[in-house]
Amino acid sequence: VTVEAQPGPKESPFAVRSNSDGTALIDSSTSAVSCISEQNRGFQYGAHDFVWGVHIKARDERMDVKITDVAVDRNTGDSYVVGTMVGTIYLQGKHIHMSKDFGGELEVAPAQNTYISGTSGTAAPTNTAIDDNTLLKVASTYANEYYGKLVELTYTSTGAICSSRATTVTSAGVLSVEGFARSTGTCDATFANTDTYKVYKGSAGFIAKFSKDGRPVWLNKLDTAHASNAHELVISSVAVDSTSGHHYLAGHFSDGWKGADDTTTPMLNYYNVDATTRVAGGTAAGTVVVQAADNYGQTPASVNVAAAYQEGFILKYSSAGQYVAREAIKGGKLADSTHVSNLIVRAFHPSTSATLNTQTISDAPSPTVKTSTTQLDVEYDFGMVAASPAATVGGGTESRSSVTLAPTAAVYYPPSGQVLTNYAETGATEAMDDWYNGLKITITCGKGMGQTRTIVDYVAATRVAYVQPHWDGDTMLPDATSCYTITGKPSSHSDGRHLISGGIYVTGNIWDPRAATNAGNEYVCFGEMADAYRDTSSSAGIPVCAKMTIDDEEVNFVAQYDLNLRAYWVRFIYD
User: Fold this and answer.
1) Apex CA 536: angle with CA 533 and CA 542, to 5°?
2) Across the chain, what does the average pLDDT equal?
3) φ/ψ (deg, to 5) at 306
4) Which of 15, 134, 307, 340 is deepest in the core (most CB within 10 A)?
5) Would you tell me how many other CB atoms lie within 10 Å of the CB of residue 39?
C-alpha cells in the first residue's frame, strides 16, 4: 500500500480514544491526527477506499480458522460471516473499541475437543495409531480425507510440541506428517512410545455479525457434543433476509471418520447469543442428532456411520442470534450411508415464502406481484382425457363441470418402504388433492377442442378435476378423444394455493455408496411440506424424499424451502 506524504485532516472523525494505559476513554477530537484518511489514499488506486477490517483469529496460532461464506443485509449493511474452527477464536481489529477491555473483543470456543489423542505405539480411538515419530495409520481407502489435518506431537522427555500437517499416504494407508512448521523446543528427537499425539480431525463452526461500520455485534457458534471422539461440523453457507435480519445457515456434520465406525452418534449443538456477553451462551439451546425422529415417518432402523454417513442441516436465527427453526437433509428408511456435503443456501424474498394464495373463482385477483418475467403461463401437465368417470356438464344445483384426467396425472403413491398413510384413512393418494386448483385446463384436440376452464377442485383418488365455468354443452363435452394441457402462472408449488413469491434455496451434493447393497431401498429426505398441504385429519407431515438405487450413486440437488424451513420441492442434476 502506498501512502501519500500529505497528512490527513487534523480533526479526527472519531471523538474518543482510549488513554495510554487502556483503562478509560478520553475526548481527543480536537488533538488527534486522523490516520484514516492517509490509509484511504493508499487504497484509492482502483477507486476502492479501505474503510475497516477485522481479524477472526485463533488464540493458538497452530489452530485452524477458516471463513466459508459471508452475507450482507442490504437494508442495514450488517454482515454475517460464517466459518469453521478447531479451537478458541476471537475477533480482533484496528477499529476503536476493539480491545477486550471495552467489550469490543468477542471470543468463543468449541464445547468439546476437536482432536483425538493417544500415545505412540498404542491404538488411538478406532483404527488409528502412531507407527513412529512421523507416521499416522488410517484406512487407506479414505486416506485423502486426512490431507491437511493438523497433527501435534508432544515429546514427554523435553516437553517440545511439534505441529505439522498430514501430507502423503502409502499403499498401506500410512499418512505421513512432514515439515514441522511451528514448534516449541526441539522437534528432531526420536518419537518414543511414551510420547503423545493429537490429530485435529474434528471441527466446530462460528457465526459473526458485524455492523456497517465494522463493529462486532455478536459471535455465535455451533459445535459437536461428543467429549472425546472429535466429531466434525462445517458451516458452509449463510443467507440473510433483509426484511427482518433473519439469517439461514447450511452445512453438515458427522463423526469425522471416513471408513471407520467410532460407535458414537454424531450430535450438533446450537446456541443462542447471550445479550449481555454478546457471545454464544454457556448452554446449548438445542441439539440435532443424526437420523433423529421426525414428523413425517422417515426414522430409520439403524445408521451405519462406518459407511461415511454425513448429514446436512439448515438452521434459522433471528438478527439477535436467537434460534428460530431447523431442518435436516438426511437418510430416510434404511439409508444408513447417505453422505450430504457442499451445501449452499440463498434467500429470495423469504418473508413471503409461506404466504399462500387461497383464492377461489369468486375472489379478487391473485396477490401475485406482476413482473415482466413471472406472468408467462407455464405448462404443468398434459394428457388425454380418461373415459371413466365420464366428464359432466354440470348445471342446476351443480355449480361446476368435471373431467377425468389421464392416468399420468398427479396422484401420490408412497414409495416402497415408506409408510405415509394418514391417520384413520386408507391410503396416501389424498395427499395430492387440490394439486391443480387455480390452474387453467385447455382442450387442445378432439371433442371440446378450444375450451379453456379454471380448475376449482381436484380429487387425486379419482383424478377428477372440477372446472368453472361449465363446458359448452353435451356436444362440447370432452371425452377419450380429447387432449388437454394444464397451465398457469409460475409458482413454487403447482397447487391451487400458490405462493406469492420467495423462498429459501439450498443446493448440495449427495453420495450413497450402499444404495444397491440395501436392495435399492435407500432414501434421502429433505424435510416435510407445510401444514397447509396436509389432509385435514392428518397430524403427520408430507415428506419430500428421493430414492437412491445404485451403489456409489452421486447427485447434485437444488431444493426450495419456505421461511419456516418447510420443503416444497427438490430437483436433481446427475449423469
Assistant:
1) 40
2) 75
3) -65, -20
4) 340
5) 17
